[in-house]
Amino acid sequence: MSVKHLNSNEFEAEVLKADGKVLVDFWAEWCGPCKMLGPVIEEIGEEQDKVKVAKLNIDEGMEIAQKYRVMSIPTLILFENGEEIDRSVGALSKQDIINRYINA
Predict the structure, then answer these.
(1) What are phi and psi of 100, to 5 degrees?
(2) Count of domains in the chain?
(3) Backbone angles phi, psi at 7, to 5 degrees
(4) In angstroms, how far apart are the furthest CA atoms of the chain?
(5) Cα(30)–Cα(55) distance, rounded to whole angstroms?
(6) Which domain holds residue 89?
(7) Which of 47, 73, 103, 104 would you call most buried, defined as having the most Cβ atoms within 10 angstroms of its Cβ?
(8) CB-side neighbour CA atoms (13 Å) of 71
(9) Which element (helix H / strand E) includes 58?
(10) Cβ-based neighbour number of residue 93 at 10 Å
């Protein structure tokens, strides 16, 4: 499976109305830690199929970021059947992300 790069118009259909779990990486081009985390998120999205993986650039989806009170980036939010069930702020290692969000 690959990582879905979302815009505001796709968020509801791809995340809130999705069956199962969706891990969303809230990020921005100007964010150093986001640039470090980006390739890790892409790898995870390519390697596993238990959880749908998506990215939302907060500069292009500010209203979504505000709705979910994303104050710092990168922020990872795990949704299940449209409901937020877990969140972390800051860059995590690949193994920490897999342990927390994929294999949990």
Answers:
(1) -80, -40
(2) 1
(3) -120, 175
(4) 32
(5) 15
(6) 4-102
(7) 73
(8) 1
(9) none
(10) 10
What CATH number corresponds to the domain at position 79?
A: 3.40.30.10
**Gap between the Cα atoms of 96 and 83, Å rounded:** 22
The whole-angstrom separation of Cα 55 and Cα 48 is 16
- How many residues are there in the chain? 104
Copy the structure tokens of residue 21. 């779990």
Tokens 């790069």 correspond to what residue?
5
- pLDDT 10s per residue in the chain (104 long)? 789 999 999 999 999 999 999 999 999 999 999 999 999 999 999 999 899 999 999 999 999 999 999 999 999 999 999 999 999 999 999 999 999 999 97
Extract the tokens encoding 64: 């979504």
- As a whole number of angstroms, the distance between CA 28 and CA 55 comes to 10
